[in-house]
TrEMBL record, chain A:
Chain's role: The alpha subunit is responsible for the aldol cleavage of indoleglycerol phosphate to indole and glyceraldehyde 3-phosphate.
Subunit structure: Tetramer of two alpha and two beta chains.
Protein name per its UniProtKB record: Tryptophan synthase alpha chain
Highest taxon above the source species: Bacteria
Organismal lineage: Bacteria, Pseudomonadati, Pseudomonadota, Gammaproteobacteria, Lysobacterales
Entry similarity comment: Belongs to the TrpA family.
Organism from which the protein derives: Frateuria flava
TrEMBL record, chain B:
Membrane-crossing residue ranges in chain numbering: none
NCBIfam families the UniProt entry points to: trpB
Pathway where this protein functions: Amino-acid biosynthesis; L-tryptophan biosynthesis; L-tryptophan from chorismate: step 5/5
Keyword Lyase carried by entry: yes
Quaternary structure (record): Tetramer of two alpha and two beta chains.
InterPro entries, alphabetized: Trp_synth_b_CS, Trp_synth_beta, Trp_synth_beta/beta-like, TrpB-like_PALP, TrpB-like_PALP_sf
Family named by the database record: Belongs to the TrpB family.
Top-level taxon: Bacteria
Taxonomic source organism: Frateuria flava
Named cofactor requirement(s): pyridoxal 5'-phosphate
Keyword annotations: Amino-acid biosynthesis, Aromatic amino acid biosynthesis, Lyase, Pyridoxal phosphate, Tryptophan biosynthesis
Protein name (record): Tryptophan synthase beta chain
């Protein structure tokens, strides 16, 4: 079993909702990137989504755009991200890591080489925002290397296509809670509850819900009908500007702990 | 001489031109793109729609645009005869309106009341604001903060036409970032909004749709050549930013193997300096803005900042069909520097009384180079994609003149 699958299996057995924090790799401080990953786990993360900085993040709002720009300005690239995951793996063999980003950095790294390097580093899955199912033939080497392509589904996804996505989903299916960019605040739980229920009925993979989750209350609202919640922009915003490892860990903890607690209240 | 393959059969059903093109977008946009593809594939064969488009092109845009024999320029160069396809004479002063009229008609038939656009030089923004005013639609134009500064006149034109101009301050604050921001708007407002992309880039069906709407340029030109000169030109050339005016001219000639096709990219301060926007001449295959194409990026895959004296060519990607034509060897893509373009601008102004857009001046410079390679009885057809009024301030500033 892949690390993502076994993590969700255990969550389900324990009757818990997964907590998936997203951070942009190398932000707020590249030298503490690995320490931040460990801090996320210590604060209750079940899976880490690590954003690979890209110059043209078309699906991201200002918070993640700026985090990306800051990381790029400090020279962070895909190679660094893979190195950090490998270092993280030396002390954490269990927490799944999913790289989230855009296709061009992987294209330039080379698909076969990326598959090899990522698998070796201990990456478990990749979520490529601008690579829908129809274009994912190029990712074949990743699947061959045991990496899972995390697919997205959206409110605009048509029913027939949703069935296709549910069938193809491996690891987990990421349901985007509203039509928009990351960091927007348009969450309407009533609207998405019914849709997510439909998706969960069809998908064999667990369903994580992201976009618009900002705090314990919104996470808790989602937890009622999802297998996991993803929190990105609000966390990235909270971490921005911190420079020391202690401070970064403290901010991650202060932000995630109440959310973890809210999710764990039955 | 027949062509070695039918170049008119692209894109395929997946929106690919050989290895290029496709739909590399977020899941949220897959449905609206499918809806647009379905609507467009239907409309492009709908006689009613095509008749409506033809009427607007004739009575609103002012088509057909003439081919003008630039005799004094040709004499000055001393080679082949240079012919100019006068897209600068269109309403709003560039080829861009061929596309915006078409897309606005598609938007209207799809029941969309709000249109958005990205713009670099401001020409596409103006052309979008123009058709939005004509059809009573709300229009929002995204424009890089740097471009707003260097294209003030067009910003004001858009406002006069009732559009809202939103400055984009992310990334390099130029055209590519404006495109990102427009995509973000679209993904947020998919239900009522139509995104009018200004060049042959973006996900399928945009490269095809924008090409089709601009292909009128080459269709007219091919007929005008046969009618007025009794033969096809020996070479044709156009400037390539995203590539819409170029593919517009080239498309009708792709299967005429005897016609040499040359695209002029912005070589800025010279390709060797790294300060340029020559994606095809100096880039590599990658994925940007929804399609696979040639991209200017570093080894880490980060898209690099581009430079050109002309805002409309300042783009690190290029339409996927051009990437395909380059690899297929059907078209050549070469760089023209800022200085060469400016020299051509002045020469055309003084020999022919035409102020060309800085973008188009790259094509004129390339036409002059080509003309030198051919004898006097040869014909070089150049797409004069737009007029230069918008650039007067830029040119004056470069020459140290305050107006
Ligand atoms: C007059 C003119 N020509 C050319 C271009 C470049 O675009 P494209 O390569 O899509 O024709 C522009 C873009 O703004 C323009 O205004």
């Amino acid at each position: 079993m892949n690390r993502i699958e076994s993590r969700f299996f255990r969550l389900q057995q324990a009757g818990r909702t997964g907590l998936i924090p997203f951070v942009t790799a190398g932000d707020p401080a590249p030298e503490h990137a690995v320490a931040l990953m460990h801090a996320l786990v210590a604060a209750g993360a079940d899976l880490i989504e690590l954003g690979v900085p890209f110059s043209d993040p078309m699906a991201d709002g200002p918070v993640i755009q700026h985090a990306s720009e800051r990381a790029i300005a400090r020279g962070v690239g895909l190679g660094d991200v893979l190195r950090w995951v490998a270092q993280f793996r030396q002390h954490d063999a269990d927490t799944p890591v999913v790289l989230m980003g855009y296709l061009n950095p992987i294209e330039l790294h080379g698909y076969a080489r990326f598959a090899q390097d990522a698998a070796k580093a201990g990456v478990d899955g990749v979520l490529i925002v601008d690579c829908p199912l129809e274009e994912s033939a190029v990712l074949e080497p990743l699947r061959a290397a045991g990496l899972q392509q995390i697919l997205l589904a959206a409110p605009t996804t048509a029913p027939a296509r949703m069935v296709k996505l549910c069938e193809a989903a491996r690891g987990f299916l990421y349901y985007v809670s509203f039509a928009g960019i990351t960091g927007a605040a348009r969450l309407s739980t009533a609207d998405i509850a019914a849709r997510v229920a439909e998706v969960r009925a069809v998908a064999k993979a667990p369903v994580a819900v992201g976009f618009g989750v900002r705090d314990a209350a919104s996470a808790k609202a989602i937890a009622g009908f999802a297998d996991a919640v993803v929190i990105g922009s609000a966390l990235v915003e909270r971490l921005a500007g911190a420079t020391e490892a202690d401070e970064i860990a403290a901010r991650a903890h202060a932000f995630l702990a109440p959310i973890r607690a809210a999710l764990d209240v039955p | 001489m027949p062509a070695t393959q039918d170049f008119h059969r692209w894109p395929d059903a997946h929106g690919r031109f050989g290895a290029y093109g496709g739909s590399y977008v977020a899941e949220t946009l897959m449905a609206p793109l499918a809806e647009l593809t379905e609507a467009y594939q239907r409309l492009r064969q709908d006689p009613d729609f095509l008749a409506e488009l033809d009427r607007d092109l004739k009575y609103y845009v002012g088509r057909p645009s003439p081919i003008y024999h630039a005799e004094r320029l040709s004499q000055h160069v001393g080679g082949a005869q240079i012919l100019l396809k006068r897209e600068d004479l269109n309403h709003t002063g560039a080829h861009k309106i061929n596309n915006t009229i078409g897309q606005a008609l598609v938007a209207r038939r799809m029941g969309k009341r709000r249109v958005i656009a990205e713009t670099g030089a401001g020409q596409h923004g103006v052309a979008s604001a123009t058709v939005a005013a004509r059809f009573g639609m709300k229009c929002v134009v995204y424009m890089g903060a740097v471009d707003i500064e260097r294209q003030k006149i067009n910003v004001y034109r858009m406002k006069l036409l009732g559009a809202e101009v939103v400055p984009v301050t992310s990334g390099s604050k130029t055209l590519k970032d404006a495109l990102n921001e427009a995509m973000r708007d679209w993904v947020t407002n998919v239900a009522d909004t139509f995104y009018i992309i200004g060049t042959v880039a973006g996900p399928h069906p945009y490269p095809q749709m924008v090409r089709d709407f601009n292909a009128i340029v080459g269709r007219e030109a091919r007929e005008q050549m046969l009618e007025g000169y009794g033969r096809l030109p020996d070479a044709i050339t156009a400037c390539v930013g995203g590539g819409s005016n170029a593919i517009g001219l080239f498309h009708a000639f792709l299967n005429d193997a005897g016609v040499r096709i040359v695209g002029a990219e912005a070589a800025g301060e010279g390709i060797a300096t790294g300060r340029h926007a020559a994606s095809l001449a100096a880039g590599r295959p990658g994925v940007l803005h929804g399609n696979r194409t040639y991209v200017l990026c570093d080894d880490k895959g980060q898209v690099t900042e581009t430079h050109s004296v002309s805002a409309g060519l300042d783009y690190p990607g290029v339409g996927p069909e051009h990437a395909f034509l380059k690899d297929a060897g059907r078209a050549e893509y070469v760089g023209v520097t800022d200085d060469e373009a400016l020299e051509a601008f002045h020469l055309l102004a003084r020999t022919e009384g035409i102020l060309a857009a800085l973008e188009s001046s790259h094509a004129v410079a390339q036409a002059m180079k080509l003309a030198r390679e051919y004898p006097k009885d040869a014909l070089v057809l150049c797409n004069l994609s737009g007029r230069g009024d918008k650039d007067v301030h830029t040119i004056a500033a470069r020459e140290g003149i305050t107006l």
